[in-house]
Inverse folding.
């Protein structure tokens, strides 16, 4: 879109290969994409098609299912190794950002010195490589993100990835840009319905990743805050077509033809970008 680059996350939920998704995103009008890392995934193949399609490979999303182990004295070695492997895949393929969750889980709220030492190995590797920045994302476990940003926030290789939907549920609506907006280097834009439980208990089924304007997000406030912190980089959207267990909010997306769905996403993305430009 004129004046703003727009990117969309690839997804296993879309029902076609990542390579096909990249080409479809280009056809519909997006400028770039990001992918999720896993062992054995051929990042170079995605980079090749990105170059062929003249698409921005905006970031790689690091694996997150072992992120609770990063904070333990034992059993963290594999999690650390995966993050460093992902970091090197970014470096080898000229991908500037690796997005990292600070934690996974809802029961513990105590960052540990062991965790900071484990993450330090990853941050130091990024500082050695220099070309790749680590963007810590707001998820569940705000205490863990706070510990990481306090400990590593002064590093030139560390920044913040703002997930608008996560803020509404995992962070109880707290203004995460007020905390980390000066380190903002990436976005995961999506809508949500907030916290479902009346008493405020959060679970992973609250994280819907709906299309902008389908939930309760205040998009005027979202673009205002992006402008407040001078974010004029790529607007990246991360969305789901499938509903969480026991929920149906995303069912209509799943019934859509994927080309029509991505086109609808692009229309909403352009609307967000236009709102941001008008709010400057």
């Amino acid at each position: 879109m004129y004046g703003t680059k727009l990117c969309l996350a690839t997804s296993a939920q879309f029902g076609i290969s990542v390579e096909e998704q990249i080409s479809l995103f280009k056809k519909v009008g997006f400028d770039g994409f990001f992918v999720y890392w896993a062992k054995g995934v051929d990042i170079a193949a995605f980079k090749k098609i990105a170059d062929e399609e003249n698409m921005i490979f905006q970031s790689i999303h690091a694996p997150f299912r072992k992120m609770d182990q990063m904070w333990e004295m034992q059993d963290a070695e594999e999690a650390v190794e995966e993050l460093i492997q992902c970091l090197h895949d970014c470096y080898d393929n000229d991908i500037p950002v690796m997005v990292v969750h600070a934690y996974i889980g809802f029961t513990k709220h105590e960052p540990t010195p062991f965790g900071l030492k484990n993450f330090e190995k990853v941050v130091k590797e990024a500082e050695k490589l220099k070309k790749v920045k680590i963007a810590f994302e707001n998820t569940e476990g705000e205490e863990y993100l706070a510990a990481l940003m306090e400990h590593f926030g002064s590093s030139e290789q560390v920044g913040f990835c703002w997930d608008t939907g996560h803020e509404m549920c995992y962070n109880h609506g707290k203004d995460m840009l007020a905390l980390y907006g000066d380190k903002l280097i990436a976005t995961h834009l999506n809508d949500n319905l907030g916290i479902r439980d009346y008493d405020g208990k959060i679970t992973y089924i609250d994280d819907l990743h709906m299309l902008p304007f389908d939930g309760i997000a205040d998009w005027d406030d979202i673009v205002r805050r992006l402008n407040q912190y001078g974010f004029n980089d790529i607007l990246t959207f991360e969305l789901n077509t499938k509903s969480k267990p026991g929920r149906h909010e995303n069912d209509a997306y799943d019934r859509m033809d994927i080309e029509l769905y991505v086109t609808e996403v692009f229309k909403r993305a352009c609307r967000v970008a236009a709102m941001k430009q008008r709010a400057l």
